[in-house]
């Protein structure tokens, strides 16, 4: 049932705003105070089928639009994002729970990505190479693939859609977009601005609803040629299995269990700043968040003291309040999962240095708040040091030397982001070589990737593809090799012509 006075939203299919075929709806509520954000269509397979059909029909013309013209639409979209930045930032503090500065950064990433990919409309580089035969020209070109299924999470509800949709569009594909059910209003606004920028009808479609009904049908639909998902490892495995029968292209951006190494020669002031920002920014709800600190034994004690002091000084509250340091986690199941890991850590013998409790005093009881939590005396094989918690929980691990630090950092199933604080340039370059991760920072935390370099990880963090930068285009294009023989005769390659 719709809440009185709350806006009702619809799917966007083939350039029209329509409800779910079933007429069913669901509500989006704020994790900060329970406010109802809006009512959305609870879609099912029938709605996905309509959206895919619209995207497939639109593809035939969109693929022929010159890529520079497609890029110009993304430039207009980026400018609209600039104009709507404050509006989107405020909405994000309410619907997702980020503090204002982080929400603004989320929107800025989408602005940056849209400008960057708009520029790719005048590049989309291929290659030319010399032929082994006379009077023959050859080159490679990027070709669009078709309908792209985009499934995004709630933690970056404006940035991550841009990482997927902008390169898909500039390459000439069409899109069916399923935003997260925790942040549908932000996904809706994203598509409204794309429409305003001039994206033709049917080129981008949004279908709201759960992963079971909407996501599974999108993955299984025979006319969806590419699936791009950011989510958990478990969801990624299910998507791969479901997409295998159709030999679909699948791009997965999954979990992380990222570590910051602090060596004995590190600048501890900068290290503590980087650790606190990486561990507790976005309430720890980033795939690149630092959930482990691997400290040399000579600085471990001082580092632990400083981190605890900073964690205890952080103010919890709604993201729209200026003095809030840490906002809510996304929902009650997330809150319960995070708290369960506090109990697991204590049961494993780790020392709870601070936090470890649900914050429910005063107005905080209206939302889902968890106090920044720090465990000391953590062993590398403990569950709290191995499993992705996705909350403001940090494990401190003591090591004897650089080699042990690298082993511990690499001793997990994930390989997304990594970091080392050191003033030794030789040590820094060894870390750049030896840390098993898609991203490595020196003298910075584990978060803060820029849109013009590839983003993604190794091992169980994904399946080898990357977002952002030119590498993103490899997800959304096929290579075609082109040969032109102007010799006037039939020349035969790959045979013995000597």
> Structural class of the secondary structure composition?
alpha/beta
| Discrete helix count | 15
Instruction: Give the % helix.
Output: 25-40%
Percentage of residues in strands: 15-25%
Mean pLDDT: 96
Q: Please report the distance between the alpha carbons of the first and last residues.
A: 79 Å
CATH class category name of the largest domain: Alpha Beta
- CATH topology of the largest domain, by name, is Aldehyde Dehydrogenase, Chain A, domain 1
Trace the largest sheet across and list its strands.
14-17-18-13-12-20-21
Number of DSSP-assigned strands: 23
The radius of gyration computed from the alpha-carbon positions, rounded to a whole number of angstroms, is 24 Å
Indicate the topology:
Blueprint: E1 11-13, E2 16-18, E3 25-29, E4 36-41, H1 45-62, H2 67-83, H3 85-95, H4 100-120, E5 127-129, E6 136-144, E7 147-151, H5 159-170, E8 174-178, H6 184-197, E9 204-206, H7 211-220, E10 224-230, H8 233-244, E11 249-253, E12 258-262, H9 268-280, E13 290-296, H10 297-312, H11 332-348, E14 351-354, E15 358-359, E16 369-370, E17 373-376, H12 383-386, E18 393-399, H13 402-410, E19 414-415, E20 417-421, H14 425-434, E21 439-442, E22 458-459, H15 473-476, E23 477-485
Parallel strand pairs: 7-8, 7-10, 8-9, 10-11, 12-13, 12-20, 13-18, 17-18, 20-21
Antiparallel strand pairs: 1-2, 3-4, 5-6, 6-23, 14-17, 15-16, 19-22
Helix pairs in contact: 1-7, 2-4, 2-6, 3-4, 4-5, 9-10
């Amino acid at each position: 049932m719709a809440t009185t006075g709350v806006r009702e939203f619809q799917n966007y299919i083939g350039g029209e705003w329509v409800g779910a075929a079933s007429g069913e709806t669901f509500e989006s509520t704020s994790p900060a105070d329970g406010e109802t954000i809006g009512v959305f269509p609870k879609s099912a397979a029938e709605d996905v089928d309509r959206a895919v059909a619209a995207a497939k029909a639109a593809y035939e013309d969109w693929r022929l639009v010159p890529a520079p013209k497609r890029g110009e639409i993304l430039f207009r979209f980026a400018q609209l994002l600039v104009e709507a930045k404050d509006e989107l930032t405020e909405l994000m503090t309410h619907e997702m729970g980020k503090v204002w500065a982080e929400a603004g950064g989320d929107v800025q990433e989408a602005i940056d990505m849209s400008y960057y990919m708009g520029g790719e409309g005048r590049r989309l580089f291929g290659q030319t190479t010399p032929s082994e035969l006379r009077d023959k020209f050859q080159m490679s070109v990027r070709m669009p693939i078709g309908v792209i299924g985009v499934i995004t999470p709630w933690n970056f509800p404006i940035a991550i859609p841009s990482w997927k949709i902008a390169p898909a569009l500039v390459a000439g594909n069409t899109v069916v977009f399923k935003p997260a059910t925790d942040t549908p209003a932000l996904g809706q606004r994203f598509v409204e601005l794309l429409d305003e920028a001039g994206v033709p009808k049917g080129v981008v479609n949004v279908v709201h609803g759960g992963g079971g009904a909407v996501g599974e049908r999108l993955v299984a639909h025979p006319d969806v040629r590419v699936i791009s998902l950011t989510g958990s490892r478990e969801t990624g495995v299910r998507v791969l299995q479901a997409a295998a029968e159709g030999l679909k292209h699948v791009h997965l951006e999954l979990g992380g269990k990222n570590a910051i190494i602090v060596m004995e020669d590190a600048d501890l002031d900068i290290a503590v700043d980087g650790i606190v920002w990486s561990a507790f920014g976005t309430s720890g709800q980033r795939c690149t968040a630092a959930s482990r600190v691997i400290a040399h034994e000579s600085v471990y004690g001082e580092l632990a003291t400083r981190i605890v002091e900073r964690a205890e000084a952080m103010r919890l509250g709604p993201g729209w309040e200026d003095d809030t340091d840490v906002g809510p986690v996304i929902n009650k199941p997330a809150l319960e999962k995070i708290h369960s890991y506090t109990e697991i850590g204590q049961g494993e013998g780790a020392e709870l240095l601070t936090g470890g409790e649900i914050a429910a005093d005063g107005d905080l009881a209206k939302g889902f708040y968890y106090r920044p939590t720090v465990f000391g005396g953590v062993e590398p094989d403990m569950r709290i040091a191995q499993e992705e918690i996705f909350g403001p929980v940090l494990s401190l691990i003591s090591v004897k030397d650089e080699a042990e630090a690298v082993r511990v950092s690499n001793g997990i199933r994930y390989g997304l982001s990594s970091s080392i604080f050191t003033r030794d340039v030789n040590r820094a370059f060894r870390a750049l070589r030896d840390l098993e991760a898609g991203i490595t920072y020196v003298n910075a935390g584990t978060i803060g990737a820029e849109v013009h370099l590839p983003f993604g990880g190794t091992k169980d963090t994904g399946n080898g593809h990357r977002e952002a930068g030119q590498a993103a285009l490899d997800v959304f294009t096929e290579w075609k090799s082109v040969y032109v023989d102007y010799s006037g005769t039939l020349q035969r390659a790959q045979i013995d012509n000597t």
